[in-house]
Design goal:
- This protein is of the alpha+beta class.
- It folds into two domains: 64 residues, no CATH class; 92 residues, GMP Synthetase, Chain A, domain 3.
- Strands 1-2-3 form a three-stranded mixed sheet.
- The protein is globular.
């Protein structure tokens, strides 16, 4: 059987569902939660009945991989998923003269080290929240805390910049 939706179509449908769920009444949310729980149990039985190679192949599909994540059935260890997420955001961070290093994954916490211009940057907290945390939580929903050495609080209340420009950190010659 072939896929009926492209990954983009699946993303759009998921976004539309999330929007509708945000407006749903509590009874409807409880019903949806129950259906998800039953389907998760069924999916767990399917995953348990096929070999690891098949599960890995299924997890490589964007939509199926997210479904496995939702039900805590991903065949990839959390540390591997977090490392892959950081690889995805590194080009963005590098474009602003920064970087990130994975220090440790312990329980529901990821410890990172911001590098380069991100270290000590007033917008490093915003960068952490907007880029790094979102990327990690997309592949590891079991992670509840992302702690980074080098992240500092934005000193002025308001909407932080997504990243410090590299020019703000250049020393005068």
């Amino acid at each position: 059987m072939s896929a009926r939706w492209t990954d983009q179509e699946a993303r759009e449908r998921v976004a539309a569902l999330e929007s509708r769920l945000e407006r749903a009444d509590p009874a409807a949310l409880e019903a949806v939660s129950g259906v998800v729980e039953v389907y998760g149990e069924a999916l767990g039985r399917i995953v348990g009945a096929v070999d690891a190679e098949a599960v890995a192949a299924l997890a490589a599909d964007e939509l199926v991989g997210q479904l496995l994540l939702i039900h805590d059935l991903s065949p990839r260890p959390v540390q591997e998923r977090v490392a892959a997420a950081l690889e995805e955001v590194r080009p963005y961070l590098a474009s602003h003269g920064g970087g990130v290093e994975l220090v440790a994954v312990e329980g529901d916490t990821v410890q990172l080290r911001l590098e380069g211009h991100c270290d000590g940057c007033p917008s490093s907290t915003a960068t952490l929240e907007l880029a790094v945390q979102d990327a990690i939580r997309a592949v590891a929903p079991e992670i509840e805390h992302v702690v980074a050495d080098g992240a500092v609080e934005v000193p002025v209340p308001g909407v932080p910049l997504p990243m410090c420009p590299a020019s703000a950190h250049r020393e005068a010659v």
